Amino acid sequence: KMTQQMRDLQLAQARKPPGPSSPNAAKRLYRNLSGKFRVNYTSFDEGSLAGRGEKEKLRKSYLFQSNAALFEAVELQDLDRVQELLKQYSPEELDLNTPNSEGLLPLDIAIMTNNAPIAKALLQAGAKESPHFVSLESRSLHLSTLVREAEQRVNELTAQVVNEAPNTDCSEKEKQLRAWEWRYRLYKRMKAGFEHARVPDAPTNVHLSVASSTSVQVTFWEPLNVNSAVVTKYKVEWSCSPTFSPLLGEAVIDKLKNLHFTIRGLVSGTAYYVRVSAYNMKGWGPPQASMPPSAIPSNWREYDGRAPRRRGQAEALDHLLGQVKTVHQHCVCHEPCKNQPQSRKHSVSKSLKHLFHPGSKFLKTLKRGLYLTAIFYKDDNILVTHEDQIPVVEIDDTYSCLLMQDFLWFTKVSCMWDEILWLRQCVTVSQSSCSCILQTRFKMLLAISQMQGLLGIQDLGQVFFEPVKDKQGNILIITLKEVKTNQTFESVRWVPICKLQTSRKSVSSPEEPTALDTLLISLQDKLTYHQHSSHALSPGLYLGYLKLCSAVDQIRVLVPEQLPNILCHVKIRSNPNISREEWEWLQKMASMEEPVPAEPEAETSQNHLFQELQVAIKELMTLVNIPLQEAKDFRLYSQEVLDFGGQVSFLLLLPPSDDVCTAPGQNNPYTPRSGFLTLPLQIFELGEER
């Protein structure tokens, strides 16, 4: 019956051209792809093709060659070529899961010849086993049939070669004989591989953790035994009973890039037991229960019923801003706009640049004063004016106020680039008070509008965390923005950064560089900072270190240069959730007068967290250059877990209360190694929000 099924399959695929007749022909076929066939078929001159039908015919022929090359590469156990084909073509282009004329898939050949590296490469690409092998008996019968038919063909060709006189036909028969002898040996090796294989051992390191109030996550590794056949899928089962009777659910995992699975839709407060088993061509192996044996879906907030700190805050702020705008619509600063004729309204909406005098332009040199510069970059290029200068506009040439307070106000304004015109109109009302602070901030808004108009864009990017100053009294406030699309700007052009730095002629001495020269010298550092500050952490639970230092006019926070929008940190684990049981244990530890952490009972989530924290604390202390014995006086912040978007959460490690914030002149014996910087606290908060 099985033989008849295979013959039917062969008839169904009769349209598919046969494969190469010999191993050498196979090698020539897929190696020639690197030359003759490894081109984009759409690059042919359309004039040389008869039409769409001819192009489609060429395309199908081209894709067939890649499919045949993959089969031959797997049969010849050429791992490099298999990886090259998988990288070069999509699974659809390779017909990765379409059986050949023998009813086999590339993955079948790889696992039955026990070639684990090729099998794993195919599995990563989405390869499947043949659906025709519904049982062990059907696979065994099919292999026996292939071996028998190949042996019969070898015998027939051998007799023909022996009995016929030497001629051209005989030479061709000898080639066919060698090809079938090679295929006969391949099928025998596949049959032997199948017969000697056994079911896989149980997966290892099966770990169960609480993912949320309604889900748990199980992670696991491959079976340790390497003598078994390649594992092609895993099965996760769960139940409320340790005997797994009744079974509540199961899931088969056949995408093996990441060996983990999240079981969702569970009942909070209910214990769930989980086990995992592996599968190969001989069937399912024994299941492995998780460690700990069970988990209860929960979240740390359930400990005291606490609501998320930021719940509804964004909506409330948007509502408050809307109310403020509604009130200001009736203020005197808006009355002139209401009485303007239609043509005036049209000119205002046409472009921001029409708000300025036609003579408005970028500055070439700096005098004593406060300035705004906008740095737009793309890859290794930067936007400059037609005079090859970084765009600079003047804020105030008589600036004499407190810079830090105005600068921090400016950073907050950078969150509202689209609202600058409205802010200007609102500040204008109060300008009659002649306040130095209000006048400076109004001039800041004017400078922002001028920069937006000259560039023809509203979003000026992120403010660099500190202004650039020089001894001549110039102060530069810097904004940075990375351009990732082919965006057009007005009054500026792109030039390579290296060309700008080498071609600019300095007008100052090396001992006393101007603010612009200092900016150009440190430009790459500022671009690197901006790129790093936009990076995000991968999902997980982290241990952060909070260290502050105070100055006369600000408080600064210690951050890593590689990720300046996040506190110094190390990763505890990939699961960001802290369960109720884990948080309860942490609270118990925090309430002890002399916290000597006794190790929790084995095989519990608390014990696993305890071990993870021990490793993380050692790693973090090494990172910030603090001797481990000093950490005995440190403590975990036990008021809350810091959540960032549901995928990233933080536990905070705090120094003793007297050392959390270092005062000016206070001795700090443990300074971090290179790779750290201190940011103004308000700048750090803005970067964290972004």
Automatic annotation (TrEMBL):
The Fibronectin type-III domain covers: 202-298
* Stored CDD domains: FN3
Q: For the region Disordered, what residue ranges are annotated? A: 1-26
Name any Gene Ontology BP term. Answer: regulation of establishment of bipolar cell polarity
Q: Which domain of life is it from?
A: Eukaryota
Matches recorded under SUPFAM superfamilies = Ankyrin repeat, Fibronectin type III
Give GO cellular component annotations, separated by semicolons: spindle
**Matching InterPro entries, A to Z?**
ANKFN1, Ankyrin_rpt-contain_sf, FN3_dom, FN3_sf, Ig-like_fold
Name by which UniProt lists this protein: ANKF1 protein
Q: Which organism is it from?
A: Caloenas nicobarica
Which gene carries the instructions for this protein?
A: Ankfn1_1
